[in-house]
Amino acid sequence: MSISIKLQAFEGPLDLLLHLIEKNKVNIYDIPIVSITDQYLEYIKQMENKNLDIMSEFLVMAATLISIKSRMLLPKKEKMEEESEIDPREELVERLLEYKKYKFICGELKDKQIDAQKVIFKESTIPEEIKNYEEKIPVEKLMADIDLSKLYKIFKNVMRKQVDKVDLIRSNFGKIEREEFSINDKINYIKDLSKNIKKLSFHNLLEKTKSKQEIIATFLAILELIKIGAIHITQENNFDDIEITFVR
């Protein structure tokens, strides 16, 4: 009987064998090995594939089927002596089941790929006010078991800690700003006074100062003026006022 087949439809010997099982609608756990082997060999005869690698795989399977067929055709008594009770089709059934499983998975993945190609995704157009929306948490939930008395207690604790952090002594200090008084400025200031007066009271000069730093700068300026001969000082008696005389 001539059978017209398309070998390209079969991906290998297991694919062809599974095709024959499904075509004959037989139980894969009870393969009629004689009939399936004959049909398999008919397919092999029709093959014109010159690819030796592919053909060798089909021929190996053919040899396997023939081997199984011959072992099953042996008389039952002789068969029992050689192979105990092991079914010679068992290994082949396991291979077919595993192949069928992977073929099914490949088919599912292929369908998903085809479905995915038909899907067109739309860019997100969610309005900003919706995208940034945050559900408000009820005040009751935020407060949990805190009532006004507990809240007041917490407030008092926080305030007490703030007070404890304050240095009572230093906190009474005013803001201290550094005053800049240079000796040269004071020298120039005293020289300017000499334009209108000839003598100057040291006590009156210091009275016009506002800080210790200014007093020190003024005193050092007087010493410098004495050193350069711009002024000279006199004192009539101990503890009297010192009189500054400008040298022309």
Give structural notes.
Component of a cohesin-like complex composed of ScpA, ScpB and the Smc homodimer, in which ScpA and ScpB bind to the head domain of Smc. The presence of the three proteins is required for the association of the complex with DNA. Participates in chromosomal partition during cell division. May act via the formation of a condensin-like complex containing Smc and ScpB that pull DNA away from mid-cell into both cell halves. Keywords: Cell cycle, Cell division, Chromosome partition, Cytoplasm. Helices cover 58% and strands 4% of the residues. It is mainly alpha-helical and 248 residues long. The chain has a 3-stranded antiparallel β-sheet with strand order 1-3-2. Helix 1 (13-24) crosses helix 5 and helix 2 runs antiparallel to helix 3 (52-73). The longest helix has 28 residues, at 90-117. The termini are far apart. The model is unreliable at 1-6 (pLDDT under 50).
Order of helices and strands: HHHHHHHHHEHHEE
Widest sheet, order of strands: 1-3-2
- How helix-rich are the residues, as a percent range? 55-70%
Proportion in β-strands:
under 5%
Give the tally of β-strands.
Answer: 3
Distance between the termini: 149 Å
Compile the SSE list and pairings.
Layout lengths: L12 H12 L8 H14 L5 H22 L2 H8 L6 H28 L10 H4 L7 H5 L4 H18 L17 H11 L5 E3 H6 L4 H16 L3 E4 L8 E4 L2
Antiparallel strand pairs: 1-3, 2-3
Task: Write a brief structural summary.
It comes from Natranaerovirga pectinivora. The protein has helices spanning 13-24, 33-46, 52-73, 76-83, 90-117, 128-131, 139-143, 148-165, 183-193, 202-207, 212-227, and strands at 199-201, 231-234, 243-246.
